[in-house]
Specification:
The protein has helices at 40-53, 70-87, 98-102, 104-107; strands spanning 12-16, 23-25, 92-96, 115-117. With 118 residues, the protein is α+β, with helices and mostly antiparallel strands. Strands 2-1-3-4 form a 4-stranded mixed sheet. The N and C termini lie far apart (34 Å).
Length: 118
């Protein structure tokens, strides 16, 4: 028996802002950054970004939310997703763009257009 965490066999991850977890497998299961074969520095960036996501009150109507730098959060997440791809070059990394997601109706986007491979 091994103490190694199970990694998704298809080497596919989605990354996006969420109150509970920022990484998911292709089957929709959470993937914990602590279990990935990435540097400690990148794990720290993912942890900080996940904490930042917890400050976003997307569960409230827009007019009742506390101020939140959604554009900065989204740009930072994309930068981290690109770093994740650099450290896991053989993996498929899909970024779920929170800004596009939150404004998809105003921007005329489909759900599929709110995420993209990095």
């Amino acid at each position: 028996m091994t103490d190694e965490p199970p990694l998704p066999p298809d080497q596919w991850l989605a990354m996006g802002g969420d109150l509970t977890n920022c990484l998911w497998t292709s089957t929709g299961d959470p993937m914990f950054y602590e279990d990935l074969p990435i540097t400690g520095a990148l794990k720290a960036r993912l942890e900080a970004w996940e904490r930042w996501a917890s400050e976003y009150e997307d569960f409230l109507p827009r007019e009742k939310r506390a101020p939140f730098d959604l554009e900065g959060f989204t740009a930072s997440g994309l930068d981290i997703a690109c770093a994740l791809k650099a450290e896991l070059p053989d993996w498929t990394i899909v970024y779920r763009d929170e800004f596009r997601w939150q404004y998809q109706q105003e921007l005329g986007l489909t759900l599929a257009e709110c995420q993209y491979e990095v």
